[in-house]
Design brief:
Number of domains: 2
Strand order of the largest sheet: 6-7-8-9-10-11-12-13
Structural class: alpha/beta
Largest sheet: 8 strands, parallel
Radius of gyration: 21 Å
CATH architecture of the largest domain: Alpha-Beta Barrel
Number of strands: 15
Number of helices: 16
Bound molecules: N-(iminomethyl)-L-glutamic acid, fe (iii) ion
Strand content: 15-25%
CATH superfamily of the largest domain: Metal-dependent hydrolases
Helix content: 25-40%
CATH class of the largest domain: Alpha Beta
Shape: globular
């Protein structure tokens, strides 16, 4: 048994609602707290002195300065498995071309596909682990990673294998997702329906057989897949037993009905979501995921996070770290900026990075500090939790 403390505050993130608004007063804060844990699992959280008396033989990890503890953060949406750079796309956007124009002209995602296909498996795994380590150093210990820059049977499998290899090279827990339905690849002889049919009949069964992931994502957009084609594909994926998620409403409001129909776990982006989309989401159980890194990378508006919460949906915040739309890869900074722009309470932002994020990944052993959950906590050297978001990402995690 180990006992770490005393923390000036432990924010457990326990007993918070999975959807709707949260006031800061709802946060459970344990003052002068200790965390007792064994074999990676929390045994008890409470007053440090009382825990010391209760577990006299515990190995002590004694803190002599003021720290605030929180559950480790969870990034539910990244594309950190890629090769190459899209700095030229970024420069083109700054010179006035839009993300969709660059994509239509053959740049954008397709450019990264070419570079990723040329990259050998081991190198792709190394690049992925390096980026995962950068996130881990920011206090993000669970990281979802999408494929989607392979876009052929062999190359998508290579990407998913690379993510698994990277998982062995980092302390972070990587959760792979199949995003073979990112765009229709330029070298595929057929239309979107043919491509998705190939994925459903050939790629998804092979992914199941190799146990590479149980999550399937699709990009619904004018330059990617239509709502109709995506619906058929996702229903097939669902039949095969996959959890469903989607990139929706990034530029065009269209996907909330689809998310509800297929019972998607999450719908990510939503920068273009209007009142109608918000009310559809409020009537279902799909979790909206805001990606402020994509708004910052594209100079676009933020997802309507405040309106979503007020309408009664859940809200998760993720980095979307990728070479095109979201090159920053700094989740805490992005979440703090979104919180300031959208007037999110600190509790809502922290829930979006911890307990609600765990729910979006269907993981029920993390995101909260309580008995039986993973002893996966992060600490910030400060007297009060409110300092962390106030410093907008510049107060770094310790240890
Ligand atoms: O989430 N929107 C689609 N996919 C990614 C961008 C991928 C890229 O531009 O390379 C996103 O923004
Ligand atoms: Fe994305």
């Amino acid at each position: 048994m180990k006992l770490t403390g005393p923390f000036i505050q432990i924010l457990t993130m326990d007993k918070l609602p999975l959807r709707g608004k949260i006031a800061d007063e709802q946060l459970e804060i344990v003052p002068n707290g200790g965390i007792a844990y064994q074999d990676g699992k929390i045994v008890e959280i409470g007053d440090f002195k009382l825990l010391q008396q209760k577990y006299p033989s515990a190995t002590l990890d004694l803190l002599t300065e003021n720290y605030v503890a929180l559950p480790a953060m969870i990034d539910v949406h990244t594309h950190i498995c890629w090769a190459g750079s899209r700095a030229k796309d970024y420069a083109m956007r700054l010179s006035g071309k839009s993300y969709l124009e660059i994509a239509t002209a053959g740049g954008g995602i397709w450019d990264t596909v070419s570079k990723t296909r040329q990259c050998l498996l081991a190198e792709l795994a190394r690049l992925t682990a390096e980026r995962a380590n950068a996130l881990y150093a920011q206090g993000i210990h669970t990281i979802e990673v999408k494929s989607g820059y392979g876009l052929s049977l062999a190359e998508e499998l290579k990407m998913l294998e690379a993510i698994h290899l990277a998982n062995e090279q980092t302390n972070a827990d990587l959760i792979p997702t199949c995003l073979a339905a990112h765009i229709v690849p330029k070298d595929f002889a057929g239309n979107e329906t043919d491509y998705l049919e190939m994925l459903a009949s050939e790629l998804l069964p092979e992914i199941k057989r190799r146990k590479l992931t149980n999550r399937v994502d699709v990009f619904v957009e004018k330059t990617a897949f239509s709502v109709d084609a995506a619906t058929k594909y996702l229903l097939k994926a669902k039949d095969l037993g996959f959890d469903i998620l989607l990139h929706g409403d990034q530029f065009t409001a269209s996907s909330a009905g689809l998310a509800r129909q297929v019972g998607a776990l999450s719908i990510d982006h939503l920068e273009a979501a209007d009142e109608n989309e918000i009310s559809i989401l409020a009537s279902g159980s799909t979790i909206p995921v805001a990606l402020p890194g994509a708004s910052l990378g594209l100079g676009d508006k933020f997802a309507p996070a405040r309106k979503l919460l007020d309408a009664g949906t859940s809200l998760v915040i993720a980095s979307d770290w990728n070479p095109g739309s979201a090159p920053m890869g700094d989740l805490l900074t992005q979440a703090a900026i979104l919180g300031a722009a959208q007037k999110l309470s600190m509790a809502e932002t922290w829930a979006a990075l911890t307990c609600r994020a765990a729910a979006a990944l269907n993981l029920h052993d993390r995101g909260i500090l309580k008995n039986g959950y993973q002893a996966d906590f992060i600490m910030f050297k400060t007297n009060d939790y409110s300092e962390i978001l106030y410093r907008q990402g510049r107060l770094m995690v310790n240890g």
